[in-house]
Amino acid sequence: MTSRTEPLAAGGWPPPVLDPAGPFAESVTTLAWVLLLGGGAVLVIVLAMLGIALFGPPRLKTRLGGERAIWALGFAFPAVVLTGLLIWGLTLTSSLSATRVAGDAMRVKIIGEMWWWRVHYQDADGREMLRDANELHIPVGRPVLLELEAADVIHSFWVPRLGGKMDMIPGRTNRLLIQADAPGIYKGQCAEYCGGPHALMGFIVVAHSPADFARWRASRLPESAGAGRGLALFLSSGCAACHTIRGTPANGLAGPDLTHVGSRRTLGAGILPNNPGTMAGWIADSQAIKPGNRMPAYHQFSGDELRAVSDYLVTLK
Amino acid sequence: MRSETGFDPALYDRFPTKEPRPEGEEEELRRIWCKPKGWEYLTVVNNNYVGIYYLGTAFLFFLMAGVLALLMRAQLAAPMLEILPQATYNQVFTMHGTVMMFLFAVPAVEAAGVLLLPQMLAARDLPFPRLSAYAFWAYAVGGLCFFASIFVGLAPDGGWFMYPPLTSKAYSPGINTDFWLLGIGFIEISAIAGAIEIIVGVLRTRAPGMSLDKMPIFAWAMLVFAVMIVIAFPSIILGTLLLEIERAFNWPFFDAARGGDPLLWQHLFWFFGHPEVYIIFLPAAGMMSMIVATVAKTELVGYRLIVLAMLATGFISFGVWAHHMFTTGMPPMTTGFFSAASMAVSLPAGLQVFSWIATLAIGQRSFNAPGLFVVGSIVIFVTGGLTGVMVAMVPFDWQAHDSYFIVAHLHYVLIGGMVFPLFAAFYYWMPMVSRRALSERLAKWVFALMFAGMNIAFLPMHLAGLQGMPRRVYTYLPGQGFELPNLVSTIGAFMLGLGVLLFLIDLARNFRLAPGGGNAGNVYDGATLEWLPSELYSARSIPVVRSREPLRDDPRLAGDVAKGRHFLPGSATGHRETIVTSPLLAEPQYLQIMPGPSAWPFAAAVFTAGFFLALTVQAYSFAWVSAILAVVSILRWLWETDRPVRDEEVDIGAGIMVPTYVTGPASHGWWTMVILLVVMAMIFIMALFSLAFLASNQPAFWAPPPSMAAGLPIYFLYGAAFLAALAARPLLKRDARWPVGLFFASAFAAGSALWLDWTGWSAAGLAPQASGQGAVIAALQALQAFAVGTGLLMAAYCAARVARGLMTQPRSNTVDLAMLFLCYTAAQGLTGALFGRAIGMT
C-alpha cells in the first residue's frame, strides 16, 4: 500500500485545511483561500485608510473625514462583498450537505466514546458488517457517508484533509460526507472538548486504491483469533471484560474491539505507532501515556507476561 | 422648541444665574456627601467609591485570569510538556474563559458605567446607590470565592460553555461544576442589577437639556449595553438553573435518553453567549468614540451613524447565536439564516470603525497614551472582524470551528474590541479619579509590548488552527507542525504579560485616588461633563446642557458650574438628592431623595453570596439561614426608603419648583420595576421556549397535556389575582389597609391557581424526573412559585409598613411596585398554564 503521509509525522506546510485530499475538502479550501487573501486585502485597505487619516495629505484626509466616506467604506463596500460571499456560502453549504448523498456511497457508523471511536462498517441496507476502532478504511474516489453518534458526551469528528467537522451528539445521528482521492493516511482528531484527555483523542483514515481496499476487506472476514499463553493471560487477567476478540470467549463491549488490533497503525486512539514495544507499554501503564483514559494500568503483569500478551495482540492482523 | 413634560424650555435661559450664592451652601453639600472613615469604606454607596472598587476588582480578575493564560501558554510551549497536569489544565482553561468573560469583561464595563455615567450626565449619583453597592459586593465576594476554587482543585473543568452531558452528574460528579453553575448564575444577577440601574440612570438622571441627541456616545453605548443584558442574561440564568436542577434533582432537561436534549443547553447558552460579545464590545466602542474625538481635538464624525450602528448591533446580535452551532447538524436553511445575520452584524462595526478613522482624519494627530491604544485597537479589532466574516461562512466554519483559528479570532476581537479600548480608557480617565495622571513615557512601552505581544501570541494561532490543532487541548503530539506556532505564541503571550506588568508598575507609582476633589484635572482637554470640577457630589451645580460638547462650546461653563450658577447648587431638602429628568428631552421632573451609606446592602450581598456558596458545598442548613438573612437585610435596607418628605415642592435653582415625591409611571421606581419584570418575563419566555424546543425535538417522549377546558378555574383565579392587585392602587386613597388586603388576596388567588395547575399536571401523570416535558413543566411551576412567594413577601412588607404608619397616602411607590409585581405574577401564571397545555395538545 502506498501512503502519501505518515500519520504521526505529517504537518508543516501546507496546513491540512489548505491541503485537501478530496472533493468535499477541496471546495472549502478554495473558499478558505479566497477568504484569507480577500481578508488580507481588506485589512491592507483599512490600514491604508488609517494611515491616510494619520499621515496623509490634507486633501485625502478631508475626503476621509466625512459621513459619505463612512457610508461608502464602512457600509456600502462591505455590504457588497458580504452579499457576494453569502450567496457563495449558501450555495456551497447546500451542495456539501449530506442530505444529497450519492447513491454509491459507502456507509460507516462512527460512535464517539470518552476518548476513542467505535467504527461500524455497514452494508447498503445499514446492516452492520464489521467492527473496528479508531481507524477507518475507505476506498479512494468514492464518497463515504458517516453516521456520527455519541455514546456519552458530545464529540466532534474532524479529518481536515477530507472535509469539515461534524459534532457527535447523544440522542442524534449526524451525517457527514468525506472522500479521499488519493491513497494515504489522513489524521483526524476530536474537535469538541469532551473532558479529561480530549487532547489525545485521535483518529486516522486509511484510504486504499480499490484493489487494496478489496484485499483489506477480504483480510477482515476470517477471524484469526490465535491461541497460546498470550490469549490465556488476556482471558484470565480481566482484559476480556472490556474487549472483544471475535473467535475467542473475549466479548467485552466497554473498550475497543481488538479482533484486528495488530493491523491498526496506531494505539491509544491515534496517539502511538503500533508495535510490540508500544503495545506492551500501553498495557503496562496506559495511564501514564493518556492520563484519565478508561483502561487501568496493568502493573501486575511480569515483564514476561506482558511480552506474551502484547506479542499475541500484535499478531491479530 | 417642543416640550415633553410641559416644562417651559425658556426657563433654561435663567442659567447661569447672576445672584451670589448663600454662604455655607457648598459646605453643606460637602457635609451631606461626606467622605467615609475607617469601616465606613465598606458601607459607602457613592458611585465614586463603588465605581473604583468595582473597576479595581474587575481588573484584579483580569490579572488573575491573565496569569492562568500564561500558565496555559507555558504548558503548550512544546509538545507533551507536563507543567500543568491534564486535570489542572482543564480547570485552568475553563477558569480563564469564565473569569475573563463573567468576572472581568462584563463587570469592567459595568464598573466603568457606574464610575463615569453620573459625572458624564452631571447627576449627583446613580439613581439606586445602594443597589450598586449590593451588585458590587455580591460580585466581589461571590467572584473571589468562586476563583478560590482553583486553589483547592475544585474549579469547574467543563469549559466556559459548560456543555452537557459532559457537565451532567454522570460525567462530572464532583462539585466543580456546581461552583460554576451557582457562582456564575449568581454573578449574572448582580450584572442585571447593575444594568437596571444604568438604564434608569441614563434615561432619567441626565442633566437638564441633555436630550438624547446631545447625550455622550458612551451613555448611548451603556444604554444599549444594559438593555442587551436585560434581554440576554435571563437566558443563561435559566440555563444554569435548569442544569443545576438536573444535577441536584435528576430532572432530565438535557438528557436525550429521557426526552431532554443537550442542544437545548447550547441554544440557551448562546442566546446569551453571542450577544454577550457585543455586550462587552459596545461600551468599549463607546469609550473609543469618546476618546478618539478628544485625542484628535475635534468633534466626533458621524455621531448619529454611531448611535444607529450601536442600536443595529444590539438588535442583530440576538439573531446570530446559532453560528456557534454550525457543526451540530442544523439544516442548511437554518445555518443560512444565522450566517447572513452574522455577516450583517459586521456592518455596524464597519460604520463605527470608519467613523473613528474619519475623526482621526479631520483632527490633529497625537500619539499620547490613549491615542496609541485607540489606533492599536482599530488595527486589532479590524483583523478580528475579518476572521469573523470568514467563520460566518458556514463551510469554512466547518473547518475552523473549535480549532485554534477560533482562539485567534476571538482574542483579536475581544482584545482589540475591549481590552485595548479599556486601556485607552484607563489612561484617558485616570486624571479624573487620580491626583496624578499615568506616565506618558512608560505608556509607550506598555503599548509597544502589549501590541507586539498580542500579535505575536495570536497571529500564529490562525496557522495552528489551519494545521488541525483543536481548541481546549492540554497538550499535543509532536510532528504535526504545531511546535513552531505554539512556541511563538507562548513568547508573544509573555510579552503581552510584560506590558501589563509595566502598566501595574505605572499604576503603583502614579495612581493616587482622589474621590473628594483634587484630581489631576482635564489633562486631555475633554469636552464632556465628567471633566467639570467635581467632588463626591459630582459637579457643584448641575449644568443646563445646550450642546453635545458643552465644555468646548462654552468655555465659561466649568467656572459657572463650580460657582453654583446652575441647577441644584446646594441641597434643597438636606438629603442626598439628584434631579430626575424626562427620558427624551431631559426636562426636570422632580427631585429624587437618595439613600445614604448603609451596611445593609453589604450584609445582603455577603449573605446572598453565602447562600449560593453554601448550596455549592451542599451545606443546606447554612444556605437557608443565609438566604433568610439576605432577604431580611434587603428588606431592612428598603425599610428606610419611600418615606414621606417634608417639603412637597422645592426650588432647584432660579426659582424653578419641582415636586419631591412622584408616583406612577413618571417615577424612577416604576421604571425599575418594569425593567425587572422584563427580566423575569425573559426568564419565563426562555423556559417556554425550552418546552417548545423539547416538544419538537423529542416528540416520542411527549405525554398529552391536561385539557384546556379543565384549566378554566386556573385561568379564572389568575384573572382574579390580576384584578385584585390592580384595584389596590386607587383604593389606597380610602385606607392604607385596602391594598394590603388586596395584595394578600391576589397572592392567595395566584397560589391557589398554581396549586390547581400542578395537581392537574400530576393527575395527567407527569413527573419531573420522568421526562424532559415533566422537567420543564415542573420548572415553569417552580418559577411561578418563586413569583407568588415574592408577591406574598411584598404583601407582608406592605402590611408591616402600614402597621408602623410608614405608608404614604394617597399615593405610594411601595403600593405601586407591589401592584405591578402581583399583576405580572398573575399574567405570567396564566401564560404558563395556557402555553403548557397548548404544547403537544392533541
From TrEMBL, chain B:
<feature type="transmembrane region" description="Helical">
    <location>
        <begin position="707"/>
        <end position="726"/>
    </location>
</feature>
<dbReference type="GO" id="GO:0009060">
    <property type="term" value="P:aerobic respiration"/>
</dbReference>
<dbReference type="GO" id="GO:0020037">
    <property type="term" value="F:heme binding"/>
</dbReference>
<feature type="transmembrane region" description="Helical">
    <location>
        <begin position="372"/>
        <end position="394"/>
    </location>
</feature>
<feature type="transmembrane region" description="Helical">
    <location>
        <begin position="92"/>
        <end position="116"/>
    </location>
</feature>
<feature type="transmembrane region" description="Helical">
    <location>
        <begin position="622"/>
        <end position="639"/>
    </location>
</feature>
<dbReference type="GO" id="GO:0005886">
    <property type="term" value="C:plasma membrane"/>
</dbReference>
<keyword id="KW-0408">Iron</keyword>
<keyword id="KW-0472">Membrane</keyword>
<dbReference type="InterPro" id="IPR013833">
    <property type="entry name" value="Cyt_c_oxidase_su3_a-hlx"/>
</dbReference>
<feature type="transmembrane region" description="Helical">
    <location>
        <begin position="52"/>
        <end position="72"/>
    </location>
</feature>
<feature type="transmembrane region" description="Helical">
    <location>
        <begin position="484"/>
        <end position="505"/>
    </location>
</feature>
<keyword id="KW-0679">Respiratory chain</keyword>
<feature type="transmembrane region" description="Helical">
    <location>
        <begin position="442"/>
        <end position="464"/>
    </location>
</feature>
<feature type="transmembrane region" description="Helical">
    <location>
        <begin position="277"/>
        <end position="296"/>
    </location>
</feature>
<dbReference type="InterPro" id="IPR000883">
    <property type="entry name" value="Cyt_C_Oxase_1"/>
</dbReference>
<feature type="compositionally biased region" description="Basic and acidic residues">
    <location>
        <begin position="15"/>
        <end position="27"/>
    </location>
</feature>
<feature type="transmembrane region" description="Helical">
    <location>
        <begin position="303"/>
        <end position="324"/>
    </location>
</feature>
<dbReference type="InterPro" id="IPR035973">
    <property type="entry name" value="Cyt_c_oxidase_su3-like_sf"/>
</dbReference>
<feature type="transmembrane region" description="Helical">
    <location>
        <begin position="738"/>
        <end position="756"/>
    </location>
</feature>
<feature type="domain" description="Cytochrome oxidase subunit I profile">
    <location>
        <begin position="27"/>
        <end position="558"/>
    </location>
</feature>
<keyword id="KW-0812">Transmembrane</keyword>
<dbReference type="InterPro" id="IPR023616">
    <property type="entry name" value="Cyt_c_oxase-like_su1_dom"/>
</dbReference>
<feature type="transmembrane region" description="Helical">
    <location>
        <begin position="599"/>
        <end position="616"/>
    </location>
</feature>
<keyword id="KW-1003">Cell membrane</keyword>
<feature type="transmembrane region" description="Helical">
    <location>
        <begin position="776"/>
        <end position="797"/>
    </location>
</feature>
<feature type="transmembrane region" description="Helical">
    <location>
        <begin position="670"/>
        <end position="695"/>
    </location>
</feature>
<dbReference type="InterPro" id="IPR036927">
    <property type="entry name" value="Cyt_c_oxase-like_su1_sf"/>
</dbReference>
<comment type="similarity">
    <text>Belongs to the heme-copper respiratory oxidase family.</text>
</comment>
<feature type="transmembrane region" description="Helical">
    <location>
        <begin position="406"/>
        <end position="430"/>
    </location>
</feature>
<keyword id="KW-0560">Oxidoreductase</keyword>
<feature type="region of interest" description="Disordered">
    <location>
        <begin position="1"/>
        <end position="27"/>
    </location>
</feature>
<dbReference type="Pfam" id="PF00115">
    <property type="entry name" value="COX1"/>
</dbReference>
<feature type="transmembrane region" description="Helical">
    <location>
        <begin position="817"/>
        <end position="839"/>
    </location>
</feature>
<keyword id="KW-0813">Transport</keyword>
<keyword id="KW-0249">Electron transport</keyword>
<dbReference type="GO" id="GO:0022904">
    <property type="term" value="P:respiratory electron transport chain"/>
</dbReference>
<keyword id="KW-1133">Transmembrane helix</keyword>
<feature type="transmembrane region" description="Helical">
    <location>
        <begin position="179"/>
        <end position="205"/>
    </location>
</feature>
<keyword id="KW-0349">Heme</keyword>
<feature type="transmembrane region" description="Helical">
    <location>
        <begin position="217"/>
        <end position="243"/>
    </location>
</feature>
<dbReference type="GO" id="GO:0015990">
    <property type="term" value="P:electron transport coupled proton transport"/>
</dbReference>
